[in-house]
Amino acid sequence: MDLWLIKKFITDALREDIGEEDITTQILVSPDLSYRKAKIVAKSTGILAGIEIAREIFHFLCPDTIFGNSYKDGDKFNSGDTLLELEASPQAILKGERVALNFLQRLSGIATLTGKFAKIVSPYGVKILDTRKTTPNLRLLEKYAVRVGGGLNHRINLSSGIIIKDNHIKIVGGLDKAIKIAKQKAPPFTKIEVEISNLDELKYIIENKVDMVMLDNFSYQELKEAIKTIRNKSRQTLIEVSGGVTLENAEKIAKLKPDFISVGGITHSAAGVDISLEVI
């Protein structure tokens, strides 16, 4: 991850958490105290994401921070593992602790959940995609965590590609019309993906030879029929399955051999990983 991209995230988060001043630390902890050692420790299993952000937080608060042994983003960890050792001013450790842990817990949670999905579907040649269902203003970090966990990023934002969805179709006045307009006006080399919600709409995908189709909230039997039809009649069209995908049904869907399975839950519903900081 390019650190210059995350500096604003860090400064905004520290400003939010510290406010005008950490009055408890200001009252109790003299700035003249000697540097203290601390370690960031995992309290559960997971896939690490955000360790460079944590390092940058302490370095921002104390430029002379010394870092010891450290795990890397993408490393798997177990409960009790020391993820990062550091030595810094006591004030920096206390001011940076919560913000560093918030980033680590959130991003590692996303990476861990993504990794579980990716492990299930990868034997079938299927890739996990994220969505735009992310925390406002944290999308770049959360999509980074998806990549760390073994997933792929779908659109970063609305300018990243064309996806014709149900509300576009309603406003334009029909699926066939929407596809034709998009193909006519799309910038050169821009891929067009179309979301459909029933088997009747498949004919427009095949007739118009779209680049990618999203099968949204199809039943298992509908998915089976749709994927078979697309593979037989429009082999160049990539297939994405979306809606209602869980860890329990992901393998069953993957066996149908779509190209991608998108899971909004890997960003909007991932539980934070339990990680703590201990002063030594």
Salient structural properties:
Aldehyde Oxidoreductase, domain 3; alpha/beta; elongated; 11 helices; TIM Barrel; 2 domains; about 280 residues
Outline the structure in words.
Involved in the catabolism of quinolinic acid (QA). By secondary structure, the protein is α/β, with parallel strands linked by helices. The chain has two domains: 3-111 and 271-279, Aldehyde Oxidoreductase, domain 3; 118-268, Alpha-Beta Barrel (TIM Barrel). The protein is 44% helix and 19% strand. The protein is built from eleven helices and twelve strands. The protein has helices at residues 3-18, 23-28, 51-61, 90-121, 139-148, 166-172, 175-185, 202-208, 220-233, 250-254, 265-268, and strands spanning 36-42, 46-47, 66-70, 76-77, 82-88, 127-129, 162-164, 192-196, 212-216, 238-242, 260-262, 275-279. Strands 6-11-10-9-8-7 form a six-stranded parallel β-sheet. A four-stranded antiparallel β-sheet has the order 3-5-1-12, with helices on one face. α1 packs across α4 (90-121) and α3 runs antiparallel to α4.
CATH architecture of the largest domain: Alpha-Beta Barrel
Number of strands: 12
Structural class: alpha/beta
The major sheet is characterized as: 6 strands, parallel
| CATH C-level of the largest domain | Alpha Beta
Strand order of the largest sheet: 6-11-10-9-8-7
What layout of secondary structure does this protein have?
Layout: H1 3-18, H2 23-28, E1 36-42, E2 46-47, H3 51-61, E3 66-70, E4 76-77, E5 82-88, H4 90-121, E6 127-129, H5 139-148, E7 162-164, H6 166-172, H7 175-185, E8 192-196, H8 202-208, E9 212-216, H9 220-233, E10 238-242, H10 250-254, E11 260-262, H11 265-268, E12 275-279
Parallel strand pairs: 6-11, 7-8, 8-9, 9-10, 10-11
Antiparallel strand pairs: 1-5, 1-12, 2-4, 3-5
Helix pairs in contact: 1-3, 1-4, 3-4, 4-5
